[in-house]
Amino acid sequence: MTGNISRKLTDFDAGITAIDTDYVRPRLAASHLVVDAGRAAFVDTGTALSLPNLLAALELKDIDPADVDWVLTTHVHLDHAGGAGALMKALPNARCAVHPRGARHLAEPSKLIAGSIAVYGEERFRELYGEIVPIDEARMLVPEDGERIMLGSRSFELIHTPGHALHHYCVVDLDHDLIFSGDTFGISYRDFDVDGREFIMPTTTPVHFDPEALCSSVDRLMSYRPRAIYLTHYAEVRDLWRLAGEMKDRVRAFADLGRCHSQAPDRGRKLRTEMFAMLSGWLDEHGFPGDEQKRHWLLDDDVELNSQGIELWLDRGSA
Ligand SMILES: [Zn+2]
Fold it and tell me: Could you give the dihedral angle defined by the CA atoms of residues 222, 226, 232 and 236, in that order, rounded to the nearest 10 degrees?
């Protein structure tokens, strides 16, 4: 397995490696492995089906599973934390840090499973996520906003970042001026890079999307003046001031699109069509050469989830 796994790893500085979790398509979702002074942490885990990749990465890096101290789940959406329970079983000494609003869902995942089946349907759910294993609460850390933990010689600050989800935190690596942002800083697929220039877009997945909270959380991340941010979708971005500005503009553009069609009888269809057109327009400005078919292949799942999230936000009446 280690022969194949090296193609799924991307090494960065400061002991950071992105591991492809093999979710849906290559380079869609990453788990980040951080190694410091012989100790290790995973930031996000992918699904239960990602476990072989994570363990193979440890083996390749010559890290004993007993030397993994932390499993940091930025939020409890299943492409980020679905595999946390299975992973914890393989790591005898690790603790799992979960946001106060997410902890009970990982300890008792039935509601999480039901929610995902509602979005994806039963068959697709099994295909995407495998079996969700509960996590023993005695092995959890439920961090307050700003709580600090140690990994080897470095300290991580865990900050609550609502907007994408109320159960979301980000991991600030204070010693290296880096941040692991989960979904808070949006999505930047490497497929959209043009001459190394990164493309960013928000993810407004059900059920907690809140545009102004999300923009404030982006500002809070930037207040640390990070050198690089590591996104679950996908890995390192560096052109941070431009990306932060575009991210906030695009969050507000999605919210405006929702408001504009809030009363339309075919609201869902309008949102999907116009969101795709909007993203495609931004890709044109970015210089992305891919044709319509490729854009649909890369964007359709996000357009679907984003539209569902915006509709729920409109239905909550907070728009
Ligand atoms: Zn998410």
Answer: 130
For residue 310, the CA-to-ligand 1 centroid distance in Å is 14
Ligand 1 midpoint to CA 130 (Å):
18
- pTM value is 0.97
Q: Are strands 169-173 and 178-182 parallel, antiparallel or unpaired?
A: antiparallel
In tens, the pLDDT along 3-54 reads 589 999 999 999 999 999 999 999 999 999 999 999 999 999 999 999 999 9
Q: Kindly give the distance from the C-alpha atom of residue 3 to the centroid of ligand 1, in angstroms, as a whole number.
A: 31
CA of 275 to the centre of ligand 1 (A): 18
For the chain, percent of residues with pLDDT exceeding 70: 99
Backbone angles phi, psi at 94, to 5 degrees: -80, 150
CB half-sphere exposure, 218, CA atoms < 13 A: 30
Alpha-carbon distance 180 to 172, whole Å?
6
Task: State both tokens at 79.
Answer: 């492409």
If you measure from the C-alpha of residue 200 to the centroid of ligand 1, how many angstroms do you get, rounded to a whole number? 15
- Tell how far the Cα of 79 is from the centroid of ligand 1, in angstroms: 7
Distance 105 CA to ligand 1 centre (A): 14
Q: Tell me the β-bridge partners of 154.
A: 151
80 C-alpha to ligand 1 centroid (Å): 7
- Cα(218) to centroid(ligand 1), Å: 15
Helices and strands (H, E) in the chain, number of each type = 11, 13
Token pair for 251: 């969050």
Nearest one of 299, 270, 271, 268 to 283, comparing CA atoms = 299
